[in-house]
Amino acid sequence: MKLLQELEAQLASLSKQNLRRRRRTTEGPSQPRVMVDGHPMLAFCSNDYLGLAAHPKIIHALREGASLYGAGSGASHLISGHHQVHAELEELLGDWYAPYMPDARALFFCTGYMANLAVLSGLSSLAGKQTAIFSESLNHASLIDGARLSRAEVQVYPHRDVLALQKLLEASDAPVKIVVSDSVFSMDGSLAPLPGLLALCEQHDAWLVVDDAHGFGILGEQGRGAVEHFNLHSPNLVVMGTLGKAAGVAGAFVAAHTTVIEWLLQKARPYIYTTAAPPAVAHALLASLAIIGGEEGHARRLHLQELIKHFQRELRLSSGRLLVSHTAIQPVILGENAAALAAASSLFQQGIWVPAIRPPTVPVGTARLRVTLSAAHHMDDLAILLDALSNLEVAA
Question: How far is CA 82 from its chain centroid?
Fold first, then answer.
């Protein structure tokens, strides 16, 4: 079949460029010590930043939720799938963000990807093609796709360049303006200059949509993410946070002024036309948020920060370079795709699982190892990784 032959040729081309992706199969819960393709590994690749995915209290809550509410929700939220526990979760998240935005309210989604599609397409629907979206150059794929789905005019500004964004906003006469940025950039670990972005949005009557997927649970004294970390306060804020990373379960939420949330509920197709997440998941998330916002969550964040500081201070590389990052994401830039694959393979053979990240996820020529640290790691785990990376000999 000609179409199959074309697909096979394109797959072969990906392989030739060292761009073909490979899935690995794990056994057991998400934790640093895990079986991968039948081999025991020390993993530094999970986004379970606080080590909550295997927390006994959350596991118990998930089981309890299933016994109380069954296995599924039964329908979309606007039909019959919006259960009481969904409402409780949204109310709690709304309370979490009340200090940072007036009349805060939250909306629960099945995934962060869906939430980002919903926010950008939903807000853009107010003015359709006359909307202007100003998107950070290193934004996550879900934000890029959300901007495309919106059919708005999209302008991309350089990474963390507030001055460039200012010039774009000053030149725009769009009736609806949306600035969108990750809070923590998922492949660099750097923080967006959110105070500067918010000041521009308030000056130009624009929304600031913040994807806090890698900040929620980690940043801020109480783990409420980038808005708490930077102490932001504004009705212009729209925050998306995922609940399958630091929160250790699944799903996502959008927090904003109640009018924004009501508009999304009425207009956001990725929310309206999908089955609601199982209520048992929401029940487990209530247990997770209790941990994140309590003393245990604080202690886990402190331990994670110690791991980050130690890694940044002690790593010695013979090949590549470590980006400066004060987050759980620690990228080691190796440059060429083949070099990153070879490094990841060498580590895997030593029983250490660190993924190689290549284009189009990162720019061409910046292939890397993406080390992710978790509060579930111990200093002894970090010592093993540091030793292996220091002895890694791969041409950059």
Answer: 25
